[in-house]
Amino acid sequence: MDDLLNEFLTETNESLSVLDLELVKLEQNPNDPDLLGNIFRLLHTIKGTCGFLRLPRLEMVAHAGENVLVKVRDGQLEVTTEVVSLILECLDQIRSILAALEQSGGEPPGHDGRLVGRLNDLSVGCAEQAGWTDSDAGPVAGLGLPAESAATALPTVDDVALSKEPGVTSQSVRVRVDLLDHLMTLVSELVLTRNQCLQHLRAQSESDLHAPLQRLDRIVSELQEGVMKTRMQPISNAWVKVPRLVRDLAQDLGKKIDLVMTGADTELDRQVLELITDPLTHMVRNSADHGLELPEERRAAGKPETGTIRLNACHEGGQILIEVADDGRGLSVERIKRKAVEQGLATPAELSALSERQVMQYIFEPGFSTADVITSVSGRGVGMDVVKTNIEKIGGTIELSSSKAEGTKIVMKIPLTLSIIPALVVACRTERFALPQLSVLELVRLPANPEQVIERIDGRMMLRLRDRPVALVDLRELLGADPPREEAPASDGTPASGRTAIISQVGGGRVGIIVDQVFDTQEIVVKPVPSILSDIKLFSGNTILGDGSIAMILDPNGIAVAAGHVVTGGRRTDAETSDQVGRDGEALSILVFRSGESGLKAVPLSLVARLEEIDLGKVERNHDQFLVRYRGQSMPLVRIGSSGELGKEGYQPVVVFANGGRPLGLVVDEIVDIVEGHMAIELAGSRPGCLGSTTIAGQSTDIVDVGYYLSQAYGQWLGVERRTGGGSGNMGRVLLVEDSPFFRDFLSPLLTTAGYEVTAVEGATEALELCAAGKNYDVIVSDIELAQMDGFKFAETVKQSTNWRETPLVGLHSHADPSDMARGRPVGFDHYVARSDKNAVLRAIQSNLTQVKGAA
Q1: Which of 267, 474, 535, 619 falls 20 to 30 Å from 10 in CA-CA distance?
Q2: How many helices (DSSP H) and strands (DSSP E) are in the chain?
């Protein structure tokens, strides 16, 4: 294929992409003369170039389309959906002929008489209505006229005027992509050489080469930045087909769709741009088909008839964030569960233990689809798994969120370029590795005694970081490297001190990778993984460091999968830990264990201080109580089960609860797992020490009443006795306003144990009814996230009432936030504490009662 034809193909394809976008805009703004002029000019240029290159078939189709635009331009034909659809069909035919031309080097045989006839019928019909003759419409190649005649047809004066470019001359130069790639490779090698020179320079205190190498460093950095800019393209190049796609989908599906695109000028590497185009297109199709409802459905739901699809792109932290969102119906969790069971991906018992967020991950499973009918748009189960795979191939992540009220949003986080990236250089034993800095959230230095922060649950290490569990992976264990003799691990397998956990982002969760040493950050050149190592998913590539040594590039996603912390689909993952809120309908981290012969038991993980294994040989007995020395003090041990006895030797798992400065050890038989799920009490507990039962992972599980065992261990120390329902408290009357059944049933026994008379209600409405009835309480304890009424609004209402105006008010939240406290005090909250902090709740109540009694 000669250079002239190659240039024609490039320019024409670019013009066709612009025409698709401009025609959709023209349909929405039919009276825009500039828009119409640009469309006419582009199609006219295509037709003229076809005639010059002796391409009669292309010229015939383009000329017929141009005739229609002439009538639109001259006011003889209105811009309607039918007119735009026919011109778009004309462009599709031109695009098809171009594709065949590119493959064979010549125009393919065949004719387009039917399409050309429809176009000419439209234009000639307008001419006849206006009193024109058929000859006025100009010659039509292929309809009785030889190709030569059509090729030599001259445009009118008006056509020439319209075909003038608005600018002076083009300011860009076309460069072959392979030439740019080769230039980028050379710059990458230059960067490696620069790093090696700087490494030698750092080893010398004084050198005559210091100043020249510093200048070289600056010049190479500027050259690298300049070459990377030649490869950068705006993301609008990947979006150029989206308006046409959305328009066609809206017509095919009978929906009204408004497309909003922001951040179209955000630039990223050409190679990355090519890799995300198909995933982006598929996600837009999903939003139009699965996400947005039909107009009548939206009207019934109180929404506007026209749905909205939003595309947004922006730079954030050295990477690109691309968001595809719609305001449709959102994902149906129940539908996903049903399809997952039908396709054998999970059992109902497994699904019941998952949070909604984890269930939604099943849409990324190969072959998964929620569509009941296979159509031309969807239903084949091919798409989202490929989307996720392609995004992760380039070192990116994909996050999904959905709700019935707000629709579905998918956020892709992808690197700016795949060639040169900043990386953290780390070491495991004597080998060094590079970890992409975009994946690093923070570094955690393990303390001298790692047992303070690292726990082992079901054989897996967990790090409690700011009260949030993070799965840990020891790179030594994963690589099969033995620890050095001087750093032997502890007897329980906990890694030695002096190491660092690198907290990395993996999907929607976090994983900590334990390494021996952290060096510094370097700009590394990414080279592909050798074929001999292609099956090892721990590495995403390799690079050459400043000293000339080769280092493998670690892949956090591959490490998490290899360590068993991430499983495809919606199955439980240790990496995907969410904030522990614990409200009805929200996920809660739950510790599941076995004790005695009565089956599974559970407590919220947020209430657990530590998980330990104690030496039964060191347990002492004081009357009816078991004690063990724990961190310099005596810790009472309580056994769940009928016998309550402990063995004489061996090690026993213990769940440690911290009641202020006094620990309590709950002796169990086996730690089963930590799961994400719901803890709604299904059956009220009738046995001491049991709040009730719920279903976790398809099994009936008892919820442990921690307050009961606290009173057993510390009842005499606290100076109170546990009350058994309904008795009058001697320390004060407390009204508990909490709409979460679990926390209501957890806090009520705790307060009763402390000696208070407790009235528990499930919402603001019931509480205000007690106020209107003249009931009096010494302290009101209220959740600030009530479903019926905002907690702050409830506080304002209480303080405006005559009956409860002077009653102290304690606010509960899932986490104590100073900004909320600042907001809570003016509206009436006297204290604000985390509801999972038992001691803080008791201290706040006691403090308010003391003030009230002092004032009296």
Answers
A1: 267
A2: 25, 35
Q: Tell me: the pLDDT tens digits for 44-96?
A: 888 888 887 888 899 899 999 999 998 888 888 888 888 999 999 999 999 89
Average confidence (pLDDT) over 102-116: 84
* CB-CB contact of 40 with 162 (8 Å): yes
Angle between helices 33-52 and 56-73 (to 10 degrees): 160
- pLDDT value of residue 173: 66
The pairing of strands 440-445 and 454-457 is unpaired
Is residue 362 within 8 A of residue 345, CB to CB? The reply is yes
Asked if residue 155 has pLDDT above 90, the reply is: no
Sequence-distant (≥ 6) Cβ neighbours of residue 569 within 8 angstroms: 340, 345, 346, 361, 362, 364, 365
Give per-residue pLDDT as tens, 374-398.
Answer: 454 554 344 677 788 778 777 777 8
For residue 166, the model assigns a pLDDT of 36
How far apart are the C-alpha atoms of 144 and 68, rounded to whole Å? 19
| pLDDT on residue 490 | 42
Please answer whether residues 746 and 691 qualify as being in contact, where contact means their C-beta atoms are separated by less than 8 angstroms: yes
* Cα–Cα distance measured from residue 309 to residue 260, given in angstroms and rounded to the nearest whole number: 6
Residue 762 three-state SS: coil
User: Encoding tokens for residue 575?
Assistant: 């990496």
Find the helix or strand (DSSP H, E) in which 703 lies. strand 699-704
Q: Residue 383: left if φ>0, alpha if ψ -120 to 50, beta else—which one?
A: left
The vertex-286 CA angle with 335 and 349, nearest 5°, equals: 25
Q: How confident is the model over 559-585, as a mean pLDDT?
A: 49
Percent helix, strand, coil in the chain (nearest 5)? 40, 25, 35
Query: HSE (CB half, 13 Å, CA atoms) of 266?
Result: 24
**Pairing, β 633-639 against β 662-667:** parallel
The answer to whether the CB of 526 falls within 8 A of the CB of 420 is yes
Angstrom distance (rounded) from CA 470 to CA 84: 55
The length of the chain, given as a count of residues: 856
Tokens of 158: 């008006």
pTM: 0.50
**Residue 811 neighbours by CB distance under 10 Å:** 29
Q: Give the model's pLDDT for residue 309.
A: 93
pLDDT in tens, 704-746: 877 677 767 765 444 333 333 333 345 788 999 887 765 676 6
CA atoms within 13 A on the CB side of 416: 17
- Does residue 36 contact residue 23 with C-beta atoms inside 8 Å? no
The CA distance from 570 to 331, in Å, is: 14
Rounded to the nearest angstrom, the gap between the alpha carbon of residue 300 and the centroid of all alpha carbons in its chain is 30
